[in-house]
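Think of the structure tokens as a kind of shorthand, similar to the way a musician reads notation: each symbol stands for something richer, in this case the local conformation of the backbone. In the example below we present two proteins back to back. Begin with the first one, reading the sequence and then the tokens, and try to describe in your own words what changes along the chain.
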Amino acid sequence: MKTKLFSKDYYYAIPENDFIARKKYRIFVILSAVIFLTCISAFIETEMLNYPEQTFFLKVSLWFLGTCIAFNYFLLRWHKNTKWAYAFFIAISFSMLHIYAYFFGGVMSSTNYYLSVFAISTFMLLGRKAGWIYIGLASVHIIVITYLTTQTHFIYNFQGAGRGAMEEDMCFSVVIILILTGIHSSSNEKSEEVIHKEVEVYTGALEKSNMELDRFAYVVSHDLKAPLRAISSLSNWIEEDIQDALNDETKQNFDMLRSRVARMESLISGVLEYSKAGRHTKHEEEINMGHLIEDIKFMLDLPSNFNMVIRGEMPTLMLEKTKVEQVFSNIISNAIKYNDKANGKIIISCRDAHNCWEFSIADNGPGIAPEYRDKVFDIFATLQSKDTYESTGVGLAIVKKIIEEMGGHIHIESAAEEGADFIFTIPKKHDHSHTLYKNVA
């Protein structure tokens, strides 16, 4: 099993609707990288100084803090406790700024200005209470460093001597900046909390609306299908009662009546399926796409004159199995149904398209003329007469809706009488490819 050090698996494990948690994690990753690189650059800088007896402690401290930052980042993927990881990161960052100020200019060190950056980060990552605690500690840090700079000889200043009264002004300015930063960040956090609560309210209302819509669709579907079944049964009874008086034309009319009833029933089922296609139920599981396609091939029971080939490797993705089955089975069944060749062929392949997986399902059927390539994805649209091919015109509309809901897109490359190639993408946020399926046939 391959392990990616900088895999985005943890980021995508955070629910998509929890955009605040995702934003916090992004900030944590970016700032962890910044602090780690700062520790490395500061370590290299101390190597260039000519004060080995004073820099030994600094170098050991920077090495230790940089290691802690790296371990904290990678351990989060194991324990998954973001609150502790963020708190540890803030503590390490504060320690680094304190040590750096102690060795490089005291209160005049430029690193003191970064205290406000990490104050904002604390508010964003850990909340208002932790943010004000950080403001308090940072203010104490500035006062202590100012005292050590002006009143003692404990501060190492490898970059020059102190600057007198400017040091007191620097102390006052940084404390004011920290307090203003805290006030601003606190008000921003309150705004975010309000927005987050509003989103939760709207999400709850939307879920309730969807449930009511599902119940309504089910009732309507049942109420519409019940009389259709009655019509079909009644036509059978009438045909049986007048069996001796029926001629060929009347039998044909009865057959046509029942086929229209069956088509209407299928249409109602199709509309119901289409209404559900865009819903994201979150029942995702790890799916080996190669094995899934083989299962669909077995389920569809291909005609003896058909050959379906999986070309190349297939990834393993985290998806809703029912929906991805709908995508492949609808496209493949259409390729079988409308194929006009003596020997039908379907070739399925996949390629890595940088930020997504691109799947291709190509057949050697009649093809689709350019002017109809978009129309076939419209609901109820069919290119053939419904009397020639029994179809509701809903299947490809469902396919498009599912793919777009996953964040991908679908298009057709085809010409009349040259077969059709359905090409669709699935973003790599669904990627779980520690294993690949490879067709050995």
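Once you have a description of the first chain, move to the second and do the same.
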Amino acid sequence: MRAKRFVASSLARTLETVVAIITGLIMMPLMIRILGENLYGIWIVIGSIVGSLYLFDIGMSSSVTRYIAYALSQKDRRRASQVMSTAFAIYSALSLIIILTAVVIALSAKFFVESPENTRLVQILILIVGLNVAVEFPFKSYAGIAGYHLRQDLLSYSRIGFKIVSTLIIAWLLFEGYQLIAIALVQLASSFFSNLVFRFIAHYLEPEVRLQPRLIDKATVKEIFSFSAWAFIVDLSRLLKERGDVWMVAAFTSPALLTVYYVGVRLVEYANELLYKAFGFTLPLYTEAVAQEDNAELARKVRMFLRLNTIVAGGMLVGAYLFGNDLIRLWMGSDFKSGDAYLVLVVLLSAKLLVFITAPYSNVLFAIAKHQYQAYVSAAEAACSLALIPILIHLMDNPLFAASIAIALPFVLTRPLIIPHLVSRYSKLPVTLLYQTVLPLTAKVSVFGLTWYLGLGFIGGQWGLVEFFLVTGTYGCSYAVFAYLVLLSGEERGLLLSGIGLRKQTHS
């Protein structure tokens, strides 16, 4: 049953991401054409403000997810209710702070808005998006329930529905002559009702876990914050690594080069988003094994997801290496510097996929409440990358390749070496489990990739759009068959077939 739920949740989260990407690709040119570059630029600024307001989460979502999943694993519904009730109180206080912050930012708009005629518009938009984030925060206290039950598919399908409906309403409003304030109000309403459905799903899965103000206590507040403080450092470090390179490239190169660099970065972000939506909800599984003190089950789960992550990441990296340059050329046009953007794509994607492959070890640190070491490592990675960027840009001829190497280099040291040793030190998971699991699969994927590379070498030339889709579609199908027949074990093939409903399960 859990295998089927995992596959269903993975497929639903992947579909949610695909829908979000497609609607984004459709709406961006539509908004630019109807609103104009000036108003759309304002919308981009508002979007960056929304991203900064989410830092007020201060890592609590990871903390709440961990403690609720831990309590449910021990069948302690009262403890789960206590964590949820305490988190609700904290998030409610944070919501008030977010509203006050939004008011302060809105009042300060006149200092960073160039055109005085747009100041009033920006102020109203900041207040609306601030209210949007503030309303969402208390619902975060329900985090962990769907994760424990592996029912993220329910959340994803509800979000897909709201995304499609809100996108259609926004498109209609644009054609009717409405502008940014109407769009922001639609997003506010959509987010509110989506959060209500989130709360309903949590209650449906765990009717005995309820908000009970009498269960709020200082000890739980301290416990949540002691965990979330380190998670916040991890989140902040990730933000610096994901955005710091863009800021540094902007500072040390030209806007034109930054545009080329950002094309590669955006493709890596899409790939990352797909991967983590599909497979990035395994923390409750590790927490369950830790709560039950079942080291053998923990090792089994880590091995399984190391294999799964390697298989998926290998296919994606080989595909990017083989087809990335043509993808960028077809997307951006023949005059674009697709070669430089391709270098950025391959280097950064290699590093991010290394992080993805070794993610089970990082998640175990969270599950055993030793995530402060993950925070130390993440902060060190961010600091090293930001320090290396100006040095390598000065030393290397290609500044974009230099920035990519600077971002990727720390991951090569920390993820396959430092993180596994930390996990081994505080748990019974051996470091060798990583290498014995990943390296044989990597060798097989490399042979597959080399075969395709040699085969494409005989074809040669540049492809049009139709040929590109035909070849990449053939690659995807061939890799799926290769993974099923060669990379997956017999047990894993059985779990896959059970998960998609093609084989009857013999156990849960």
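Compare your description with these statements about the second chain. The chain has two domains: 1-209, 225-501.
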